[in-house]
């Protein structure tokens, strides 16, 4: 039995490993894993298991796990799938607490494999075993005290500070090759396979307090438990950057929806919202993942977004400037002292403004002097150094010169060296701890932008989810009434009542069955008024003129009824009419939308954006996964492109932003209290400069017909 303190230690810090399915055949997975363990100099005992061999790779071989005389912490299983369950039973009886199941042929191949995988899951739980896989490439721990390489990759992992997890085994070998080429070292490399037991969340928690792991990279195809991931990632990203490549950016996963919110919330939007709320950096490609990784791996976190560019050629300087501005970075303005030092040192033809062009004659001393001056400037947060190698200057000398200077300053420095491929191989040998190097300025700017976003995330103040005093019982009554009548759609009045129960202000209204009722309601509410058709069959009333605004007299109200009756009759909707809504006319506000849709994988998604008729045309909206904190509610509002319209432009006063943020939090609380809510549209919500004049003008709520 292992004496490990963490349940994953038998997998990642074993003192002994059995390779079940070890083989003499070169090129076989069983042989390559045994070979890699030996070549990587595993600091523990190795036990090959194969009933048909006495010795493999000059090591005594055992016919089965039970015949191994020593304690075994980890078993790596490389046998045909129909033998896996039997081997797991043997390992369980033997007291082995860690498994890596390389074997494929489980849920990834269809229903039969799914059944086999469920049986495997039950067995490991029965014995209290932790397992990586099945259908995986294995794992690597580069710790000098362990030196564990349980993979069949021909490429060894370099030692470093990056924990990497991949759901794709096929991608694993390519990743190790790329990482070695760009000199990126790992603390751990894990191919998770089908994640039957050990998940990405488990690995995050294992690496959270691991001092060797300073950066976490993830290639994911799915989230097993998104809510747990959110909790873990939010906590870890305060201390360590988490970078994710998540497949599935296409719109194929989008589902049909009746609301504005549902129509705009695809699967990818949910993932983006989840990752952004956790401080996780999402990248689009594996190439970008490694670009950003080497930026973090070899640099301090930037203190701001002000970047300086140092170069020996004008063209790359322009490219780098454009890339930085496009990535949201700010071109730093040098102090008078910085400009004078540069002017005194550089030739007259050089440019001392940002970007600094030292011209083609610049050598290693020029780069060292100018970089030192620029990094000393308090107005500079980071530097991108570009170099186009002339024939007479060795780019290795430039890199080594930059290295001597950058280590004296606590600011990020990224290099763009437009050299041949041989240079990158050579620089890894000569200066293995060099600054992150890129072929093109766009890669460096994109990386620095990601680092700045992460720095802002870490600097955010802590914020809690606020709980408001609400009338939950009233809302429950309204949902129960809809279910009792077999409806999944609340009426407009019911929807407005739910909002009011949760403290979201609504415009004064009254429901009328006919003209006489409407006239009485109008007298009670007071003119001017809005007249709306009420019908569950009409998703968007404005599409056929079912909303008439600014009715100022009883005569205008009567004429509006005539108009609506003609339109309803022409559209064949008179049979579906449920009544009319009389509502106070709210003027002067900016129309926004507050919404929610239920994502089948990630739960309730809250939406905020510009409202009214422009929701689906402009699509200026932001999503977050509930529950949201007070800070997140304000960020949702500020993150739409149209925020300046709400904040006030050209002397206009700001709308009541605090009320909007509070309404989003109240909506978040509502959907958290009632899991049967599937969609909500509060559109439009009139946001006024005064809190008391800001009100919901229309609302729609759809629920499932299950029990509360």
Short key terms for the protein model shown above:
38% helix, alpha/beta, seven-stranded mixed β-sheet, Rossmann fold, 708 residues, 30 strands, six-stranded parallel β-sheet, 5 domains
Map the helices and strands.
Elements: H1 9-12, E1 16-20, H2 29-39, E2 45-49, E3 55-56, E4 59-60, E5 74-77, H3 81-94, E6 98-101, H4 111-127, E7 130-132, E8 138-141, E9 148-151, E10 159-166, H5 170-181, E11 186-191, H6 200-208, E12 215-220, H7 226-236, E13 242-246, H8 260-264, H9 267-278, E14 281-283, H10 286-297, E15 306-311, H11 314-326, E16 330-331, H12 336-345, E17 356-357, H13 364-376, E18 382-387, H14 395-406, E19 413-417, H15 421-430, E20 437-438, H16 441-459, H17 472-484, H18 492-501, E21 509-512, H19 515-525, E22 529-534, E23 547-551, H20 554-571, E24 579-584, E25 590-599, E26 603-610, H21 615-618, E27 621-625, H22 630-638, H23 643-647, H24 657-673, E28 677-687, E29 695-696, E30 699-703
- As residue ranges, the low-confidence spans are 250-258
Radius of gyration: 32 Å
Characterize the overall form: flat
Percent strand? 15-25%
Separation, N- and C-terminal Cα atoms: 47 Å
Placed side by side, the strands forming the largest sheet appear as 9-8-11-10-12-13-14
Number of E strands: 30
* CATH overall fold name of the largest domain: D-amino Acid Aminotransferase, Chain A, domain 1
């Amino acid at each position: 039995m292992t004496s490990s303190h963490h349940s994953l230690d038998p997998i990642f810090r074993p003192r002994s490993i059995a390779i079940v399915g070890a083989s003499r055949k070169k090129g076989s997975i069983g042989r390559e894993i045994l070979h890699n363990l030996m070549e990587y100099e595993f600091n523990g005992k190795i036990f090959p298991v194969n009933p048909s061999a006495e010795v493999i790779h000059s090591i005594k071989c055992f016919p089965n796990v039970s015949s191994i005389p020593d304690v075994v912490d980890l078993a790596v299983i490389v046998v045909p799938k129909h033998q896996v369950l039997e081997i797991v039973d043997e390992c369980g009886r033997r007291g082995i607490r860690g498994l890596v199941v390389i074997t494929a042929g489980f849920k990834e191949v269809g229903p039969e494999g799914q059944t086999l995988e469920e049986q495997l899951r039950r067995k490991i739980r029965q014995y209290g075993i932790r397992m990586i896989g099945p259908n995986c490439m294995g794992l690597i721990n580069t710790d000098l005290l362990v030196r564990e390489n349980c993979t069949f990759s021909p490429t060894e992992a370099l030692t470093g500070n990056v924990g990497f997890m991949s759901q794709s085994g096929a991608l694993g070998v390519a990743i190790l090759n790329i990482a070695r080429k760009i000199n990126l070292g790992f603390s751990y490399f894990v191919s998770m396979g089908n994640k039957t037991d050990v998940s990405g969340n488990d690995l995050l928690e294992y690496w959270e307090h691991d001092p060797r792991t300073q950066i976490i990279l993830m290639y994911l195809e799915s989230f097993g438990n998104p809510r747990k991931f959110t909790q873990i990632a939010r906590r870890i990203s305060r201390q360590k950057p988490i970078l994710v490549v998540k497949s599935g950016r296409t719109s194929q996963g989008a589902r049909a929806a009746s609301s504005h919110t549902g129509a705009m919330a695809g699967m990818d939007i949910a993932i983006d919202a989840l990752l952004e709320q956790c401080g996780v950096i999402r990248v689009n490609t594996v190439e970008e993942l490694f670009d950003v990784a080497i930026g973090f791996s070899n640099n301090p976190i930037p203190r701001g977004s002000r970047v300086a560019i140092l170069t020996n050629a004008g063209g790359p300087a322009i490219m780098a400037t454009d890339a930085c501005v496009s990535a949201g970075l700010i071109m730093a303005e040098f102090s008078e002292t910085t400009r004078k030092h540069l002017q005194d040192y550089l030739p007259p033809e050089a440019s001392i403004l940002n970007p600094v062009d030292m011209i083609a004659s610049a050598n290693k001393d020029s780069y060292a002097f100018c970089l030192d001056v620029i990094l000393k400037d308090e107005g500079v947060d980071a530097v991108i150094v570009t170099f186009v190698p002339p024939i007479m200057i060795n780019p290795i000398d430039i890199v080594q010169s930059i290295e001597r200077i950058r280590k004296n300053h606590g600011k990020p420095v990224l290099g763009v060296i437009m050299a041949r491929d041989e240079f990158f191989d050579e620089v890894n040998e000569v200066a293995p701890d060099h600054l992150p190097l890129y072929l093109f300025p766009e890669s460096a700017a994109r990386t620095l932008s990601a680092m700045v976003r992460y720095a802002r995330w870490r600097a955010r103040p802590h914020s809690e989810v606020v709980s408001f005093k609400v009338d939950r019982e009233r809302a429950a009554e309204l949902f129960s009434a809809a279910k009792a009548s077999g409806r999944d759609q609340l009426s407009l009045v019911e929807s407005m009542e739910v909002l009011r129960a949760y403290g979201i202000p609504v415009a004064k209204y009254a429901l009328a069955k006919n003209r006489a009722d409407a006239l009485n309601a109008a007298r009670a509410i007071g003119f001017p008024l809005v007249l709306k058709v009420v019908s569950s069959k009409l998703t968007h009333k404005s599409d056929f003129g079912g909303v008439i605004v600014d009715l100022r007299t009883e005569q205008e109200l009567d004429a509006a009824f005539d108009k609506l009756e003609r339109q309803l009759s022409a559209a064949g909707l008179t049979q579906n009419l449920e009544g009319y809504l009389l509502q106070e006319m709210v003027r002067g506000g900016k129309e926004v939308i507050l919404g929610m849709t239920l994502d089948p994988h990630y739960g309730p998604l809250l939406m905020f954006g510009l409202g009214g008729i422009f929701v689906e045309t402009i699509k200026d909206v932001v999503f977050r996964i509930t529950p949201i904190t007070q800070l997140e509610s304000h960020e949702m509002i500020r993150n739409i492109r149209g925020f300046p319209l709400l904040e006030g432009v050209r002397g206009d006063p700001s709308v009541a932003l605090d009320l909007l943020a509070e309404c989003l939090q109240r909506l978040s609380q509502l959907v958290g209290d009632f899991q049967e809510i599937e969609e909500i549209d509060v559109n439009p919500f009139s946001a006024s400069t005064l809190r008391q004049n800001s009100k919901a003008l229309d609302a729609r709520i759809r629920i499932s017909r299950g029990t509360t």
